[in-house]
Amino acid sequence: MAKQAKVLLVDDDADLLRLLSLRMKSAGYQISTAANGREALSQLAVEHPALVVTDLKMDEMDGMALLDAIRRDYPTLPVIILTAHGSIPDALLAANQGVFAFLTKPFDGKELMAEVERAFQLTAAAPQGKRGKEAAGWERILTRSAKMQALLDQARLVAAADASVFIHGASGTGKELLAQAIHQASPRRDRPFVAVNCGAFPEQLLESELFGHKKGAFTGAASNHVGLFQAADGGTLFLDEIGDMPLALQVKLLRALQERQIRPVGATETIPVDVRVISASHRDLEREMAERRFRDDLYYRLCVVTLELPALAERAEDIPLLAEHFLREAATRNRKDVRGIAPEAMELLVTAPWPGNVRQLANVIEQAVVLSTTPRIGAPLIRHALRDRDGEVVPLADAKGRFEMNYLIQLMRMTRGNVSQAAQLAQRNRTEFYRLLRRYHLDPATFKEDEEESPET
After folding, report:
1. Domain end among 336, 352, 385
2. Sigma-54 factor interaction domain: which residues (predicted)?
3. Distance (Å, whole) CA 109 – CA 113
4. CA-based angle 50:56:61, to the nearest 5?
């Protein structure tokens, strides 16, 4: 049983909600509740439940509309639907939209708990407290972002299989870190993880790096060379920036993947290899295919599963967490007595555009640590490291809809649930700020509780 996994319960019947909460808490699950679909979506944006159990018929947003929204934004999150209005058409529609289970009220409590157990057995909801190589891979990816958590859920599912994976994301988003985590959570974890940047070599040298070469195969080939495919045998080969690979070499890579064997440059014999390939690129490979710069057949061979890494600007709630992590590392590495970041400096970090993503954030923090003469990094140092391209907190009056909700969530995460500090950052009084929180069903206590948990994945 996946003890301590989070379950979100959604029902407009307060008595049933209370009963379900007691039953699941006694089974060892962490429980959060919502009275309707809109409130549930707000909870999903703040927390990251491993399972949703929802009523079908509710005011404002019913269970089917909630299911549709979850499938759009959290495609791997399992959903169990309960209803007193069960019908074959409803069940069929729910099944078509990817519901995990559909139970009709009055339902048997043991049957519901059996479905909950089955959901955790068949999905990526891993028990807390896991250790070893698998846990170490995920724990290196620090996040409080619901978008990142949804991505990591997909990655955990992928890790258990042996399918080829393509990671798409801008430079600096952590594509290799994610690839390493997938490898360490896979059955191949005890075999090598080998990485190569396909854009860092000219064509002939890249071919030799991948497949190896025989002595005398070309000028300068003074001895036999074992390629990365052989070095990764039994493990994982990570092909970073695969979109930069020349077309002629794409043909040879495709043949190696199809035949599961390689031929070193200058050799006549082939060598069998067993590798899982994870590839990555900042390029849009579908556009590259349309413009005849990337082969269709190789694309479909590599992109069995595609994972989209969000830019840092899309997960701004992670910036304080990452900044503090990078500060600790940089302070230790540079033997500096720097122990914190001033609130004004943190505000600059959170509102900066970050075109270089997580890598740029790490560099900014490193520079600030090296130049700091005090135990706390102030705004001038951060502004200097950002080359004066600092941003400002967007006024809430200019924000609408989903952006406004995400804005509030980011502020509450930054301040660890302190409404006074959050209201000050937003330039609003406490009364107005509380009104905004209630509009989006955001409970300050939720953010205080989050802080007690490990920030790691």
Report:
1. 385
2. 141-370
3. 6
4. 85
Alpha helices in 233-356 (DSSP H): 247-259, 285-290, 296-302, 319-333, 343-351
Which one of 281, 308, 335 terminates a domain? 308
Tokens of 326: 């990078």
How many domains are there within the chain?
A: 4
Give the whole-angstrom CA distance, residue 348 versus residue 419.
19
Burial label, 335 (beta-carbon count in 10 A; 0-12, 13-18, 19+): exposed
Q: What is the C-alpha separation between 412 and 451, in angstroms, rounded?
A: 11
Range of the domain at 370: 312-385
Helix H, strand E, coil C: the string for 75-123 is CCCCEEEEECCCCHHHHHHHHHCCCCEEEECCCCHHHHHHHHHHHHHHC
Tokens linked to 85 = 């209005």
Checking if the pLDDT of 242 tops 90, the result is yes
Cβ count near 346 (within 10 Å): 21
- Give φ, ψ of 71 to 5 degrees: -65, -30
Residue 396 vs residue 206, higher pLDDT: 206
In one-letter notation, the amino acid at residue 322 is: L
Put residue 28 in one of left, alpha, beta given phi > 0 → left and psi -120 to 50 → alpha. left
Q: Which residue has the tokens 């970041």?
A: 341
Count of residues making up the chain: 457
The closest of 32, 104, 88, 96 to 64, measured between CA atoms, is 96
293 CB-side CA count, 13 A: 11
273 and 151 share a domain? Answer: yes
Provide the 3-class DSSP secondary structure of residue 246: coil
The encoded tokens of residue 217 equal: 């195969």
pLDDT tier at 91 (50, 70, 90 boundaries)?
low
DSSP state of 159: H
Q: Are 23 and 113 in contact (CB under 8 A)?
A: yes
List phi, psi (to 5°) of 202: -65, 165
Radius of gyration, CA atoms only, the chain = 25
Distance separating alpha carbons of residues 125 and 133, to the nearest angstrom: 17
pTM to 2 decimals?
Answer: 0.64
Backbone φ and ψ for 11, nearest 5 degrees, come out as -165, 140
Q: Are residues 437 and 340 in the same domain?
A: no
pLDDT tens column, 397-453 = 333 556 677 778 878 888 888 898 888 888 888 888 888 888 777 888 877 754 444
For 193, the 3-state DSSP assignment is strand
What 350-353 contacts at long range (C-beta under 8 Å, 24+ apart), as own/partner pairs, is 350/316, 350/319, 350/320, 350/410, 350/414, 351/316, 351/390, 351/391, 351/392, 351/393, 351/394, 352/386, 352/389, 352/390, 352/391, 353/313, 353/389, 353/391
